[in-house]
Amino acid sequence: MMLAMGARVCVVGCALLAASRAVAAPTLSAPKLSTATRTFVAFAGQPAPISLAWNPVDGAATYRATWTSGADVITAEVTETSFQRAETIAGHHVFTVTAIDAAGLESPPADLAIDVVTIDAFAPGARGVPTPPPIAAFAIGAKFSSPGLRCQLGSSDLALEVVAKVAGAFRLHCGGEAGQPMVEVPVVIVPVTITAELAPIARDAQTRIHVTVASVAAIGDYLEVAAIGDLDLGPAERVVGGLDIPVTPGGAAVSGGLIVRASAIELGRVALDLVDPPAPYVPPAPESDWAGVDLGVHAGAFLPADVGTDASALGHPVDPDDAVSGGPVFGLRFGLFPTRRVGIEVESEISTSSYANRLGVAAILINRAQLAARLVEEGRFGLRALLGGDVLTTLNGAGTSKVGTLGGLHYGAAFSIETRPGVSVRIEALDVITVAQDAGYAHCLEVQIGVVTRLGRRDHWK
């Protein structure tokens, strides 16, 4: 009986104690979001700057802020009463904030639905992924669009893509139709300068023109050029500061110009001044058609046959040991060319020859005249064929060799290299045919190298 009564007293007392504790436990109120903006804009490749705030909750030690984007949930505990985030994903998002006291008790959550709208902006002539502009302005020809929304720039018509056509300060509106968010951003449009410092260009001739394309705002690489008038345009090359364009005006073109566009939007024009091509250069006729003259010096070797009866008869030796042998030769040359192809050359030279088997020097004076035919004249190089007669005079004797004169014929060739205008190095080889000791023919080889200068007419045979 006493045990049952005690149990009833415990149950009643425990219930009263639990009830008193429940009444004493504090209750946190839900935070009240104070932001009036529920739609944010990610403009021109930059994330949307989201900033949310709520009123402080009495008794709250911290707040749990939760950002939900589809399946992605981001949670953070903060002590301040604000939340900032840079969001790049367009669409619907949910922000939730809960107050938490020092004992860990939580308030009811406060929710806010957020819309993020992206607006793409492309500089004129730009392609690919939109990038933030280097300055807070866009050039004429820039394009703006927002996925799924129609936009309006200033007083332009609503369109899925709007293009800036005039300079000025405008407001860009996107969305606002039934069930759509509506956003508005300020936009500054600046002009594009198209210039070219041009001299008159000739008809029927290609001229490479540089056109300056400039603006304080960004301009892309994909610009187009169209012709005004009878102009043939080569591929335009995008360079720093503008375009390089090969232009060929037609022979009957009266006027011409260039139009520079970005995605069919005209950025500017350049007028061209056309002139007739210059007359082909005709070299002035020489005041007098007098002949060209060659003057030169040379050195080399004179090598007559000196063995047996085939030895040359120079000096008319009786003893074979007294036959004139080879030696160095030094001489002068004079040439007269009345025509471009054929001229007459005269050479006078001294050969200090020796004897076949005797000591001493056999001085020989060689005079010759020859026809020189220019076979090849290619740039600085020339080749001449030579044919003429010789007079070979032995000036002193030794043993059975004595003073005397022989006649002869020769043929050969001369190769020349022009080292500077009017001056050439000449290499010459001759086969001089004269009388042999057996009254037959003796062949004498002569090779020489010299320097020749041209006076008078200096034209080349063509």
Write the topology of this structure.
Layout: H1 2-24, E1 39-43, E2 48-53, E3 62-69, E4 72-78, E5 82-87, E6 91-100, E7 110-122, E8 138-139, E9 143-145, E10 151-153, E11 162-163, E12 168-175, E13 182-190, E14 193-195, E15 201-202, E16 207-214, E17 224-228, E18 231-233, E19 237-239, E20 242-249, E21 256-262, E22 265-272, E23 274-275, E24 292-303, E25 327-337, E26 342-353, E27 362-378, E28 381-394, E29 404-420, E30 423-435, E31 441-455
Parallel strand pairs: 1-7, 8-13, 15-23
Antiparallel strand pairs: 2-5, 3-4, 3-6, 6-7, 7-9, 9-11, 10-12, 12-13, 14-16, 16-20, 17-21, 18-20, 19-20, 21-22, 24-25, 24-31, 25-26, 26-27, 27-28, 28-29, 29-30, 30-31
Descriptive overview:
The protein is mostly beta strands. It is 5% helix and 52% strand. It has one helix and 31 strands. Mean pLDDT is 87; it is low at 1-25.
Please give the oligomerization state of what you see: single chain
Physical arrangement of strands within the biggest beta sheet: 24-25-26-27-28-29-30-31
Taking all Cα atoms into account, the compactness measure Rg is 53 Å
Helix content: under 10%
Estimate the strand proportion: over 45%
Per DSSP E runs of 2 or more residues, the count of β-strands stands at: 31
> What integer is the average pLDDT?
87
The low-pLDDT segments are: 1-25
First CA to last CA: what distance?
149 Å
Please state the overall shape, judged from the principal axes of the Cα atoms: elongated
Class per helix and strand makeup: mainly beta
Number of helices: 1
| Biggest β-sheet strands, sense, barrel | 8 strands, antiparallel, barrel
